[in-house]
Amino acid sequence: MTRPTLYVMVGLPGAGKTTLAKQLETEHHALRLTPDEWMMPLFGWGEFENKREVVEALLWQVAARALLLGVNVVLDYGLWGRSERGEYRARAEALGARVRLHFLDVPKAELWRRIEARNRALGAGEVPISRPQLEEYWDIFDSQRPTEEELNSYRQSD
């Protein structure tokens, strides 16, 4: 039996994480876990405070069970923090899974172009993102973006 794989999406809103996650889901017969798809049905519109953290913790429990059962999993979380990425990697490897990181590194101007287009045609459960929010997210993520060394460590792990 081959080891299951945890596919980890890393990037800011508008980078294309969910699009790639859906592709990986199909190509690798994986369970895709996207917190954004759970937030609105569970909590409705409004301030989510720490509810996203709760949803992500619950989704990880589902992911861990799936990995133990030999099912590939795609975590479509964003995972901006280096320590957060390391934590999920360690958890998955402790379960015997491989981990593949997909970093979608998109320039800020292109992110904003995509977000503006998405804001104009929001679907059910999608939350608009403002330019100041993107700037704030960029500043938070920029110091934590994966380094070449980190990316190489995922390429070499098995």
SSE inventory with pairings:
Blueprint: E1 5-10, H1 17-27, E2 30-33, H2 36-43, H3 51-68, E3 72-78, H4 82-94, E4 98-103, H5 108-120, H6 131-142, H7 148-156
Parallel strand pairs: 1-3, 1-4, 2-3
What this model shows, in words?
The chain has 7 helices and 4 strands, in the order E-H-E-H-H-E-H-E-H-H-H. By secondary structure, the chain is an alpha/beta fold. The chain has a single domain (5-156), classed as P-loop containing nucleotide triphosphate hydrolases (Rossmann fold), CATH 3.40.50. It has a 4-stranded parallel beta sheet, sandwiched between helices. The radius of gyration is 16 Å and the shape is globular. The mean pLDDT is 90.
Note the main attributes of this structure.
158 residues, alpha/beta, Rossmann fold, four-stranded parallel beta sheet, 7 helices, 4 strands, 53% helix, globular
Overview in brief:
The protein is 53% helix and 15% strand. It is an alpha/beta fold and 158 residues long. It has one domain (5-156): P-loop containing nucleotide triphosphate hydrolases (Rossmann fold).
Question: Can you count the beta strands?
Answer: 4
Could you please say which CATH topology applies here? Answer: Rossmann fold
Run of helices and strands: EHEHHEHEHHH
Strand content: 5-15%
The overall average pLDDT, rounded, is 90
Low-confidence stretches: none
Counting DSSP H or I runs of 4 or more residues, the number of helices is: 7
Oligomer: single chain
The helical percent reads 40-55%
When the domains are counted, the total is 1
Rounded to the nearest angstrom, the radius of gyration is 16 Å
Structural class by secondary-structure content = alpha/beta
Question: Strand arrangement, largest sheet?
Answer: 2-3-1-4
N-end to C-end Cα span: 15 Å
Level-1 CATH class name: Alpha Beta
Give the biggest sheet.
4 strands, parallel
Coarse shape? globular
**What is the CATH architecture descriptor?**
3-Layer(aba) Sandwich
